Amino acid sequence: MTTTTATTPRGLLPLPERTARLTTAAGALATTATTGLSWTWSSDFPGDLTYYGSPAGLQIVTLTGGLLTLLLAASALGLRGLTWLTPAGRHAPTLLAALATFAATWFTLGAIAVQLGGLVNLEPGGFAAGAAALLTLLGALALPPDQPPTDPPGNPWQRFTALLTASPLRPRGRPLPTWAEILTIAAAFAAGLIAFTYGIDTDDGAPFVGYLLFIALAVPALHRAGLIARLTELTHRHRGIALTAAFLAAASFPLTQDTDQYTIIGANILIFATVALGLNVVVGLAGLLDLGYVAFLGVGAYAAALVSGSPESALGLHFPFWAALLTGAAASLVFGVLIGAPTLRLRGDYLAIVTLGFGEIFRIAMLNLNGTTGPDVTNGAMGIPNIPNLEILGFNFGETHDILGIPIATYGNYYLLMILVTALVVLVFRRAAASRIGRAWIAIREDETAAVAMGINSFRLRLLAFALGAALAGLAGTVHAHVVTTATPEQFQFAGPQPPNSAFLLAAVILGGMGTLSGPLVGAALLFLIPAKLDFLQDYQLLLFGIALVLLMRFRPEGLIPDRRKQLEFHETGQLDVPDQRLPDPAATTGVTKAKA
Amino acid sequence: MTTPPTLAPATDNAPTDNDPVLRADGVTMRFGGLTAVRGVDLTVHPREIVGLIGPNGAGKTTFFNCLTGLYIPTEGTVSYKGTVLPPKPHLVTKAGIARTFQNIRLFANMTVLENVLVGRHTRTKEGLWSALLRSPGFKKAERTSEERATELLEFIGLAHKRDHLARNLPYGEQRKLEIARALASEPGLLLLDEPTAGMNPQETRATEELVLAIRDKGIAVLVIEHDMRFIFNLCDRVAVLVQGEKLVEGTSDTVQADERVVAAYLGEPFEGAPGEAEAAEVAAAEAAADTAADAPSTPGTTKGEAP
């Protein structure tokens, strides 16, 4: 391969720029078209890709990818009316989209060949799709980089990464009218809902992996294009509307489901996410490392189970829902204060050890309160089963109700209830964070001595954070008990393959982004969905999960959705001084190590 | 005018004669066998700038920490406007004493404005419930805090950088921000621990003016500093701390003229000084050496030699 000169930056392949663009666009168009063909003759492959004229299963992923690449390539070509799609980079997003399409398409073809036993199972349509996706990728690889490299990169890998470099956001030409901005927000959340729903609805195994591959590359494409930064701008300008839109989009998820098969995943994700958000108050805002947080979910769940009217409950009480909710939150709050009061004078590691111990003590205590080794309260390992469905003002959660003509069954009902609880926790988190109390928490996290010298009663505020976090987990625990219908000690472990455990909760917060609102929600959704959908990996799940976490912490230590503070902390460069300036992409600056204060 | 370390100082140069803002009575701080501060008395009157100087390791910062409740003095009391201070730092700040730190301790990952707002913590009452319910009182308090913080930022000349992260400010501005943060707690007395350390002459000059401006707001200032020109330009009264004891206290001229101060800084043994034998030994050993080279090394050798 010839060396590129610094004056005319070239892509990885030696093609003229115009040819490269046209090839990309043509390839993307062809890829889109081939999704209408049959890819395989047999309907054995999940999703049934045998039909002509109607894309199905993973073909939809390829179709989306093809359209996305086409739009981005057209925008890069400067087509009138489409340039708004790439307010930052032009070629990097096109390349990433082409890469995403290519990965999803070839993965699908490979999976068909492997699962059905040989390439012979592919129809010509499949080969055509593969060729078109490859052509798109080759065209995109020939596009010159958006940012002229400062020094001519040497080996092909360096030149490849140079192609993916992010560009700063260009200033907006003329501002959109307000209604258009709001419409854009609504459309973005609708698109998010569709993508999420598709992911939840995909079959386990190969189709989900293909979906995941695509998302993992397509989201960076949107990011490089500057669309995500633009959307963030809009949501910041219309905070209330954006929150309402997100809430509505989330609430309409059960309406897209025919059966309860996937709504239960939705309900569990919401429980998990809510608890993660509660943990974010403790870890993200106040900086207290809590390794036994799931115990507070457990306290809430057991408290709710005891007053739920379950025939196995030792108390035999049956509280109305609001009272059960308060009982769960109050029980967790009491435990939070009991654990926090003696231990929160400790700093850092010591607190982590104590909370880790508390988590285990809780689980073992629940096991032992079984009537033989202790008083009979919790039924030991059997737990408290047969927790009846909730009934609020005559609305029984166990029955199917019609909303807008669409039947919503048990888990749909719980999902909608959980949405309300999540919204409440989101509200609490936002308002607490943006207040005198929230600032004091962050100050304690930053420098406790200085915070104390500024008049902050550090012990009291840490206890407040700990108790608030516990109460929020207790709230979620109350609903959790009714969704799972059983409260057993084994649900509330430190670590395990099933998501609601302390290790996963902490991982969700750190993976998503500490101290942010949406970070733990996204992190929790991913951490719940991926293990639930990749069942076939079985024993390797935790291993892969660990590797993924290590890689993420290496390359994006601030989490998927970084706090502005954290991003500055981990990827500091000289010009980050100006707050309004768009931050350079972390991938480009990972070499810059965090400067210790 | 000089006063022996054991007696209460005379109230010279006090512009008004009401209660002293700060009165430290016989403050002693021992760490195990080491006595870092020994029976120090100090008063600061309203609208007064008092300097605290002394060689390295003389116990100046330890004394500061005793005043602000970070250390609980082994003996002696500290009172603010006539009431004895509780030995808890946050309560001391609440009572009206604010401080800065020798090595800057800003909340590095908070914005400039947020740093100052944290300083307002003790002067606002809004708890978690009012934050969650966003009561009108909460909004009003937030607005007032923000206005007050903006005023302070204008006062120190950082208003244009209110949304920058504190860590990204240049050194001199970080020092200023620390002062603004301390002022946000509406103190009656401001303790500055080496406010000009690491600054160039222009910045030192600016800090001097800032301290005078703070005094003009009616806030008394107690300042630790090594920069003698800064101290003698600024302070109404200067106290010299040597090996944990107050050696001299008085006006700039008195202190500058005092032989013992010169001796303490240049390292010559003085009468009745603790650790005299060691100091004499060192002085003898280094008699041949240049006096200029002696100056920085000798305080170090006598440091911490108190029995």
TrEMBL record, chain A:
Q: Where in the cell is it found?
A: Cell membrane
Record membrane topology: Multi-pass membrane protein
For bias kind Basic and acidic residues, which ranges apply?
A: 573-583
Q: Which UniProt keywords apply?
A: Cell membrane, Membrane, Transmembrane, Transmembrane helix
Bilayer-spanning residue ranges: 20-40, 60-82, 94-114, 126-143, 179-200, 206-227, 239-256, 262-283, 288-307, 319-338, 350-369, 411-429, 463-483, 503-530
| Keyword Transmembrane helix applies | yes
Keyword Signal assigned to the entry: answer is: no
UniProt-annotated stretches for the region Disordered: 573-597
Its main localization is membrane
One Pfam family assigned to this protein is BPD_transp_2
Entry superkingdom = Bacteria
| InterPro entries in alphabetical order | ABC_transp_permease, LivM-like
| PANTHER family assigned | HIGH-AFFINITY BRANCHED-CHAIN AMINO ACID TRANSPORT PROTEIN BRAE, HIGH-AFFINITY BRANCHED-CHAIN AMINO ACID TRANSPORT SYSTEM PERMEASE
Q: What is this protein called?
A: Branched-chain amino acid ABC transporter permease
Species? Streptomyces nigrescens
Automatic annotation (TrEMBL), chain B:
Give the Gene3D superfamilies listed for this entry: P-loop containing nucleotide triphosphate hydrolases
> Which terms in the Gene Ontology molecular function aspect does this entry carry?
ATP binding
Q: Which domain of life is it from?
A: Bacteria
List every stretch annotated Disordered: 1-21, 275-307
Q: Which UniProt keywords apply?
A: ATP-binding, Nucleotide-binding, Transport
**ABC transporter domain spans which residues?**
22-268
Supply the name of the protein: ABC transporter ATP-binding protein
